[in-house]
Design a protein that fits this description.
The chain has 389 residues and is of the alpha/beta class. It is built from 15 helices and 15 strands. 49% of the residues are buried. The structure holds NADP nicotinamide-adenine-dinucleotide phosphate.
């Protein structure tokens, strides 16, 4: 099916980082997304990729990639690209105030906002190059789809409205969610489709070191240790799911967030290289027909997302893989199921009798694949299939 789509030339911004390297691996051999250009900071621009990068992947880089010359992350240097994927840090990707202060969006008209803000990702969309971003800056912007490809690819249908509001013809901005959020919203989507709204969640995460980029957390801090705090992370866990699980209005011009979904989060960093674990307790809104653990596991096994139904080439066979074994999932063993595009779930149990929560489970997601580069690529595939690129 995938071969029917025209080839699209892709650039990767932040190509030397943890997420950037993962983009490059996932784009190798892609049926219609071709790696055309790589960009990084001024420190790296002008160097051959192999001389600038600290390659930390298990697969060696290809000869072609090793010889690619890194470009400055300037839109005029990526005019030969149909799409760019951004693995840029948030301080260069966009306006840092935007994600925490949505009111700031109202201080200028939406179009003025686009013209006034001079950050890298904005520069690209203004140059009519679509951007798929992993940075946090614009996730909560009312005109920016926040898409987890196996949950809400239908939110991409706001793109024509975004273009109209921003005065763009081809450019647009689509964001991925936070890497730990992705691992919980996929199971929530499966459960809500079958049993109605989830109302209250308590989640505890154990997040991998690669989530902090490279070199990330110093080894002296993380070996033989758990760090019970990740700056800014709990806020994202508590506030991004409502937009992802919400709906697009009838005119495809605004998102209605899922109301009444309350999430409490505790995030920790552990000495695992890749793969975030999330331990979830949840309560359904409908008190009259609370599902059993068995029904919950079955609903997750049966879940099929729109990305899968559309035949996107990177869509996993199972959006959720459910283990019966009590000691799974484990990051080292299970993070690469379906090339890292699947969230694996285990320990599905009912809550304590008479207790507050209905269901408990553990979820594992590969933070640089499903949690970052892989989701961006899958979002781009869906955008191509839907004709937005
Ligand atoms: N790591 C994860 O699991 C994960 C998951 C989801 C989302 N994210 C988000 O993805 C983004 C990238 O994360 P990461 O972990 O890959 O970070 P990283 O390893 O620190 O990589 C950052 C990249 O940005 C480039 N860069 C830095 N300053 C720049 C500038 N002024 N101009 C152009 N390029 C610049 C770096 O290039 P040089 O090599 O030249 O410095 C490098 O390629 C962040 O916004 C992060 O929050 C990360």
């Amino acid at each position: 099916m995938a071969t029917q789509y025209p080839k699209k030339k892709c650039g990767v911004l932040g190509a030397t980082g943890s997420v950037g390297q993962r983009f490059i691996l996932l784009l190798a051999d892609h049926p219609f997304l071709e790696l055309q250009a790589v960009g990084a900071s001024e420190r790296s621009a002008g160097k051959r990729y192999k001389d600038a990068v600290r390659w930390k992947q298990m697969t060696p880089m290809s000869e072609r990639l090793s010889q690619l010359v890194l470009r400055d992350c300037k839109a005029e240097q990526f005019q030969d690209c149909d799409i760019v994927f951004s693995g840029l840090n948030s301080d260069v990707a966009g306006d840092v105030g935007m994600e925490t202060n949505p009111i700031a969006f109202d201080h200028c008209s939406r179009k003025q906002w686009l013209i006034q803000v001079h950050f890298l990702e904005m520069e690209f969309i203004k140059a009519e190059i679509p951007v798929f971003s992993n940075a946090k800056n614009y996730r909560k912007h009312p005109l920016v789809p926040l898409v987890v490809p196996t949950v809400n690819p239908s939110h991409l249908d706001l793109i024509p409205h975004q273009r109209k509001e921003f005065g763009l013809k081809k450019g647009f901005l689509v964001c991925n969610s936070n890497c730990a959020v992705i691992g919980i919203v996929i199971p929530f989507a499966a459960l809500q489709a079958k049993f109605g709204p989830v109302e209250e969640v308590e989640v505890f995460t154990e997040q991998a070191i690669s989530g902090a980029g490279y070199p990330g957390v110093p080894s002296m801090d993380i070996v033989d240790n758990v760090i019970p705090y990740i700056s800014g992370e709990e806020d994202k866990l508590e506030n991004e799911a409502q937009k992802i699980l919400g709906s697009l209005n009838a005119g495809a011009s605004a998102f209605d967030e899922q109301k009444g979904l309350t999430i409490g989060a505790t995030c920790t960093r552990v000495g695992v290289t890749d793969g975030h674990m999330a331990f979830v307790s949840l309560r359904f809104k409908n008190r009259s027909a609370v599902p059993s653990a068995e029904e919950v596991a079955q609903a997750m096994r049966e879940y099929q997302s729109e990305a899968q139904k559309l035949g996107a080439p990177s869509a996993p066979k199972e959006a959720i893989f459910v283990f019966d074994e009590p000691d799974r999932p484990q990051p080292r063993l299970d993070r690469n199921i379906n090339n890292g595009y699947t969230v694996s779930v285990g320990r599905v149990r009912e809550g304590q009798k008479g207790g507050y929560f209905d269901i408990r489970f553990a979820a594992l997601s590969h933070n640089t694949v499903l949690g970052a580069a892989g989701s961006s690529i899958l979002n781009a595939e869906v955008a191509v299939i839907k004709g937005y690129v």
